[in-house]
């Protein structure tokens, strides 16, 4: 048995040290004493003697990752239990150095024995190291007790550094506090926990990670700790975002589509109702568009639709959003816009388009728009709004096209 051990001790405990040292040397146990100013200076898994007055704030959370002995001025069972529950191995009065010596003796000899009796965990480790997603497990005091190679790659630390550490030893302090709180919540509640977070790997790359954690139980039914698996869902989320965008976008023109309008109108209307700010809608339909197809061909018609979308987008403000509702029919939803402003905007688009010429396949093409406009009344239902604006558009068409018609968005009788 190697009888030389390192003990870190806070400078305030120098007066105990000589007595402890003397007691232990009688039993051929040599201690190398290293004086520290704060518990942080004691490496993870090492033995430290620290006085209670020096443990404040997050220092307390470093106790469990070390073989910590807290020395107090007024010892009582309650005080001792308090420190042990916070992760200390034991708690002593500074007036009983021989007790401290006896406990250290028992600890060091026990430690030497269990080291030599360690169960062969190598097969288990090989198995989890083969799994390509990061896996870790911590005990009930939030100390990492194991992990795989993928977890080491993620953190950029060796297993030696991670195992035995608390999250406060290996993560930036602000993040450590967040992880610690999530761990406490899971241990308290039991069961499983699943959440997504954006995480920067040690190599600098940013990943979207799904954390799946679960509490494991000890044979006595108490929580033994937690195991966590980190799945990289960056590609899956990118694909989902692409699909979501595709399902909300008109393929030909790149404008938002009817499906997107149906979602947005409900949300915006709710916001407008809550804030009392006006919300208006414009329905635009190209006049005699069939003629473009008939005269220049369908592909020229497609190009015309793309160009008109670009042209409309350029004429809209930041509160306006354009939707392609059908073939040559569009909606513009205008936030914080009352009927008067909506009409001005519609008229400006109508007259602007009338003067504009599109060049399509070397042909000069003129287009005009018929437009219906409505300010959404807060008390009527959406179907009625859409029916009313259709009516306004129909009137504009029937009255000769290339014109704007407004309709009241009040409740229909
Ligand atoms: N090229 C092309 N044409 C389309 C597309 N969608 C709809 N159209 C055409 O748009 C035309 C719409 O015709 P109508 O509903 O008669 O309307 P219009 O000719 O614009 O006449 P009014 O609306 O009454 O002024 C049809 O010829 C459709 O084929 C498209 O994606 N590409």
Structural commentary:
- The chain is an alpha/beta fold.
- It has 3 domains: 4-116, Rossmann fold (3-Layer(aba) Sandwich), CATH 3.40.50; 122-237, Beta-Lactamase, CATH 3.30.450; 249-407, Reverse transcriptase/Diguanylate cyclase domain (Alpha-Beta Plaits, 2-Layer Sandwich), CATH 3.30.70.
- It has helices at 14-25, 77-85, 97-116, 122-130, 149-155, 159-162, 167-170, 173-189, 234-248, 258-275, 289-296, 298-315, 339-355, 382-398, and strands spanning 4-10, 30-36, 47-51, 67-72, 90-93, 135-139, 144-147, 192-200, 206-217, 223-232, 256-257, 279-286, 320-326, 329-335, 358-360, 363-365, 369-375, 404-407.
- The strands form 4 sheets. Strands 11-13-14-12-17-18 form a 6-stranded mixed beta sheet, sandwiched between helices. A 5-stranded parallel beta sheet has the order 2-1-3-4-5, sandwiched between helices.
- It starts with a strand and ends in a 6-residue tail after the last strand.
- The model has no long low-confidence stretch (mean pLDDT 89).
- Bound molecules: guanosine-5'-triphosphate.
- Residues 193-245 form the PAC domain.
- It catalyses: 2 GTP = 3',3'-c-di-GMP + 2 diphosphate.
- GO terms for molecular function: diguanylate cyclase activity.
């Amino acid at each position: 048995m190697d009888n030389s051990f390192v003990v870190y001790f806070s400078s305030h405990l120098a007066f105990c040290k000589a007595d402890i040292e003397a007691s232990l040397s009688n039993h051929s146990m040599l201690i190398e004493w290293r004086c520290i100013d704060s518990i942080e200076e004691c490496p993870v898994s090492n033995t430290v003697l620290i006085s209670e007055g020096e443990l404040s704030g997050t220092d307390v959370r470093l106790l469990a990752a070390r073989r910590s002995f807290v020395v107090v001025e007024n010892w009582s069972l309650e005080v001792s239990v308090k420190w042990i529950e916070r992760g200390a191995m034991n708690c002593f009065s500074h007036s009983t150095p021989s007790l401290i010596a006896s406990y250290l003796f028992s600890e060091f000899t026990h430690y030497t024995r269990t080291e030599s009796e360690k169960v062969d965990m190598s097969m288990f480790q090989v198995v989890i190291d083969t799994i390509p997603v990061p896996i870790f497990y911590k005990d009930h005091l939030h100390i990492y007790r194991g992990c795989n190679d993928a977890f080491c790659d993620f953190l950029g630390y060796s297993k030696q550094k991670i195992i035995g550490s608390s999250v406060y030893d290996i993560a930036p302090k602000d993040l450590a506090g967040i992880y610690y709180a999530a761990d406490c919540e899971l241990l308290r509640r039991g069961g499983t926990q699943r959440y997504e977070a954006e995480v920067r790997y040690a190599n600098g790359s940013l990943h979207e990670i799904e954390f799946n954690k679960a509490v494991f139980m000890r044979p006595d039914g108490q929580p033994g700790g937690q195991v966590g698996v980190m799945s990289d869902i960056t590609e899956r989320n990118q694909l989902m975002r692409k699909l979501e965008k595709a399902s909300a976008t008109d393929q030909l023109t790149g404008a938002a589509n009817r499906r997107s309008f149906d979602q947005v109108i409900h949300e915006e209307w709710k916001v407008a109702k809550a804030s009392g700010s006006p919300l208006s809608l414009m329905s635009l339909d190209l006049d005699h568009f069939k003629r473009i197809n008939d005269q220049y061909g369908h592909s020229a018609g497609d190009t015309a639709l793309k160009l008109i979308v670009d042209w409309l987008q350029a004429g809209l403000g930041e509160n306006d959003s354009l939707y392609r509702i059908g073939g040559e029919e569009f909606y513009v939803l205008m936030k914080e816009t009352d009927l008067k402003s909506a009409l001005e905007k519609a008229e400006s688009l109508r007259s602007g388009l009338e003067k504009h010429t599109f060049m399509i396949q070397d042909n000069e093409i003129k287009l005009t728009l018929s437009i219906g406009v409505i300010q959404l009344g807060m008390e009527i239902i959406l179907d009625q709004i859409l029916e009313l604006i259709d009516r306004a558009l129909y009137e504009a068409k029937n009255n000769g096209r290339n014109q704007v018609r407004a309709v009241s968005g009040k409740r229909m009788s």
